[in-house]
Amino acid sequence: MACMLAMVQHVGAQDYYSSASDFARLYVGAIEPQYPKSLWHDMPYYKGTTDMYPGRVSYHGVVYDDVQLRFDQLKQCVVVLPPGEKVICLPEQEYIDWFEMDGHRYVHDPEDGSRFAALLCDGKATGSHEANDMRLYHSVWKVYSGDHAFEGKKFQKTLTTEELYTLVTPGGEMYHVKGASDIAKLFPEQKKQIRQFAKKNHLKFSKSRREGSLVTLVRSLSGKDLEERGERLLCPQERPRGIISISRHISFLSPLSSFLYKRLDTHYRYPRA
User: Fold this and answer.
1) Running DSSP on this structure, what letter comes out for residue 65?
2) Cα 195 to chain center, whole Å?
3) Region 22-29 average pLDDT
4) CB contact set of 63 (below 8 Å; sequence gap of 6+)
5) Which of 19, 113, 173, 176 counts the highest number of beta carbons within 10 A?
6) Is the pLDDT of residue 47 over 60?
7) What's the pLDDT tens digit per position in 58-72?
């Protein structure tokens, strides 16, 4: 209730509820601790700036539009600015289902629930692409790297940035990927086609272009874009015993996707139900 009390001191309870309306629950929380700029050489927020971004937040199952927010990548938390106020609140993070800002939707990282990750591909059909049930996440977090002397020998706190791209298969296996070669390793029989697709579409995996290229490549695994070259699909009777095919539950996939999933099935053994 600390944030609520602080806002009451500014505008009074009646004015606060009137301005916040349905957002009141989202804005009830602690006041955000500040990072004094004189002590921090690197700001821990998204893109290193204290700017607020317009966005959306799903909080405790309720979606709130037109929210002013920013993302603390050191503490991995989202803070929000109540309508018409200057006091920034820290909602209870476990109730944040997801939030959207700067063109991305962030969800709890499937690999580490204490982090947030941008959900780049959700496995659903988009545009000309078929659904493939593969998800791609991009996690970025900042780590304290000590105090260093800068202008006038003044010591300030510094941060380093860490990041991971995580590909989650239909079976729930997680892989860290950085480029076409990493994805090709998951599907050895399709290695040539995957690399040709990356070359044909001028996909580059340098740090500045990696996100967009990985998204294009992962979405292509639906088979809509990758060229089929007459590979022989595994028939049910040819599957190794003890293997349950994921693809039999995904009848709407293209032949190539079914082949890729069967490849995963033969690589990872699932107990027969």
Assistant:
1) E
2) 25
3) 77
4) 56, 57
5) 19
6) yes
7) 999 999 999 999 999
**Low-confidence winner among 28-42, 165-179, 239-253 (lowest mean pLDDT):** 239-253
Which neighbouring-strand residues pair with 100? 56, 105
In the chain, % helix, strand, coil (3-state, to 5) comes to 30, 30, 40
Phi/psi of residue 171, nearest 5 degrees: -85, 0
Say how far apart CA 71 and CA 99 lie, in whole Å: 10
pTM for this entry = 0.72
Angle at 251 between CA 229 and CA 192, to 5 degrees: 25
- Count the alpha carbons within 13 Å of 261 in the hemisphere toward its beta carbon: 28
DSSP element (H, E) containing 58: strand 53-59
DSSP letter for 46, please.
G
Which is nearest to 190 in space by CA: 141, 251, 132?
132
Task: Look at the chain and count its residues.
Answer: 273
